[in-house]
Amino acid sequence: MFGLELAPQELLLAFCIVMFGALSQGVAGFGLALLIGPLLVMVDPMFLPGPVVLLVSLVCALMVFKERSAVNVTNVKRTLVGYLLGTGLAAALLTSLPARETALLLGGLILVAVGISAAGLSVPPNRRVLFSAGIIGGFMGTISGVGLPPLALALQNEPGPRLRGTLACVGLLSIIMAEIALVSIGKIGRDEVLLACILAPAVVIGFLLSTLITRHIDSRFTRPLIFLLSGISAVTSIIKHF
User: Fold this and answer.
1) What is the pTM of this model?
2) Sorting pLDDT into bands at 50, 70 and 90, what band is 64?
3) Residue 125 domain boundaries
């Protein structure tokens, strides 16, 4: 279908996965990359890393527009060099990493991201911490699309709008870096862009739905649920490719 080696039912399943991930992102402030990476790679390995990264960039752009007035520009600047270094390291690794090992690494990084997000550790958001969070986040984001948990941990005490706006801005800029790196090593091409375009409406639909139901859902319930689903899907992906 559309020149891709995917059956219609596989595309429909992928569409539903992405829509649910975008819905979770809009409700809880995260969830798209955590959920869709390991689930989509179980549908077909071609979803990783290019299409996942492209779809994450779309939801980051939507969130930047929504929270644009609350971005902390100083913290954004402090993280970007770190993200650039982490992105370069990941791109160098991906040039020689087979699909099976990439899928295993994805599952492992998702588990790390869930652990970081759920730990609730307290770290000071100083220059050194933000730089280090950028390196780790850039590496994770280029491979899996999940690059914000280290930064979210450092900024967890920021007010809600400022936290969401800053994370979304850094997320968008870092994902653009990742896309450039993946294009340069041949991991994003015509097929990956086409697949992301087919699934892009699912991101928009899920995000719009989230704006309608956010006020009716307690985020204290959605956050643990997303962590649980992400952890299960990551473990399942690792078992499948081990």
Assistant:
1) 0.83
2) confident
3) 8-222+232-241
